[in-house]
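Please decode residue identities from the backbone states below.
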């Protein structure tokens, strides 16, 4: 069997590992546009900050592929998929045949569209090369602006500050990470940022990037403020890498549409990770979930099914964990604004002592949870959400001293 995997991130690597365990003799080829072994993108901000060494970013060594009989085509890009012929076209001019194909080609940063966004000094953080570029620029800069109200936005602001730069953090929403945190949760994070010297401007974006001789010198915000900056870090979301699939016949939306087994509509083609818009059997919707944990899980499921197994996603549940200046934050499942019919938001007497705990129920069933300060219950919450656990009988005990969701597993 000839397995080809496009993408060498968390999903692609886990799929290759899974296939090799199940099929010791199959041919496995991994193709990636970057020249490096698989690495943790989540660790790039820590590398920029100086908290981690470069070697700690990598998941496997360069020898891993050879030792596991995996052909690694590094620094190559797939330009087309000819599904009828089961052939890939590469940027090098080569073609590559496959029996089973996994598309784990990930996503790229959404670009800023404001005037001046093409100036030298507008930076994004998705790759190791981009991290190296930011480190180089930081040695010569004095100030920076970070834009983006999600996890990567706050990580860029933190990294800039840890590099010794005067840092302003712009959030276009009314608070930090409103897609996952309510006002009380956001406030705890914002307080930590202020304590560390990061100046936060909410409901404020970038109107124009200013500069001379092609380099960033300042940012004009939507509030009319002009902020001095030699670097502007942009983290306003990601876009799935789908362009090379034009004409392939694969069904796409925001990502590649796949069923709960991660199979596309075309036989023997699978997708996993940031590019896979997988069927969530619990809701009947196709969901795109971009996280390292999700990528690894989907990679294992895809690898198992490609090599003759039969496993399905238990449910596509958002699961995000981040540590911001020592403050752990976990958001699991789905959150709804108060007042939505059938939903109930429980917070007990939180926030207290710098900690926060919130459970979201729909008709008594757990559908979402947030933990700040202590996140040990996050995995248990995810399992309970996947199981559709009815908590009506436990409702009065959920916030009693000493209660822990792990007791319900």
């Amino acid at each position: 069997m000839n397995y080809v995997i496009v993408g060498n991130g968390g999903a692609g690597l886990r799929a290759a590992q899974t296939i090799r365990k199940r099929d010791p003799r199959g041919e496995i080829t991994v193709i990636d546009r970057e020249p490096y072994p698989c690495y943790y993108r989540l660790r790039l901000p820590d590398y920029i900050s100086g908290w981690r060494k470069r070697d700690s970013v990598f998941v496997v060594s360069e020898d891993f592929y050879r030792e596991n009989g995996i052909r690694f085509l590094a620094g190559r890009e797939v330009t087309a998929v000819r599904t009828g012929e089961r052939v890939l076209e590469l940027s090098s001019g080569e073609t590559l045949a496959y029996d089973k194909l996994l598309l784990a080609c990930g996503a790229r940063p959404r670009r800023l569209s404001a005037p001046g966004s093409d100036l030298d000094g507008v930076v994004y953080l998705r790759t190791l090369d981009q991290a190296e570029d930011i480190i180089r620029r930081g040695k010569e800069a004095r100030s920076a602006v970070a834009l983006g109200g999600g996890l990567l936005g706050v990580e860029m602001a933190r990294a800039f500050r840890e590099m010794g730069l005067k840092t302003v953090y712009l959030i276009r929403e009314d608070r930090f990470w409103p897609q996952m945190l309510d006002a009380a949760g956001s406030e705890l994070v914002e307080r930590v940022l202020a304590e560390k010297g990061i100046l936060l401007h909410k409901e404020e974006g970038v109107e124009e990037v200013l500069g001379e001789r092609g380099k960033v010198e300042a940012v004009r915000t939507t509030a009319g403020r002009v902020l001095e900056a030699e670097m502007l870090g942009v983290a306003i979301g990601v876009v799935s890498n789908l362009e090379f699939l034009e004409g392939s016949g694969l069904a796409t939306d925001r990502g590649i549409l796949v069923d709960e087994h991660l199979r596309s509509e075309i036989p023997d083609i699978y997708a996993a990770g940031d590019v896979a818009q997988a069927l969530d059997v619990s809701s009947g919707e196709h969901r795109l979930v971009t996280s390292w944990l999700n990528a690894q899980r989907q990679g294992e499921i895809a690898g198992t099914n490609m090599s003759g197994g039969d496993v399905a996603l238990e449910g596509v549940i958002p699961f995000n964990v981040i540590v911001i200046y020592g403050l752990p934050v976990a958001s699991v499942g789905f959150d709804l604004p108060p007042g939505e019919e059938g939903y109930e938001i429980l917070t007990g007497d939180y926030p207290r002592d710098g900690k926060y705990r919130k459970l979201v129920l729909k008709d008594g069933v757990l559908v979402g949870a947030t933990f700040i300060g202590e996140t040990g219950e996050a995995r248990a919450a995810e399992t309970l959400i996947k199981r559709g656990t009815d908590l009506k009988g436990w409702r009065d005990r959920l916030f009693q001293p000493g209660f822990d969701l792990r007791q319900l597993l």
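Observation: The chain has a mean pLDDT of 94.
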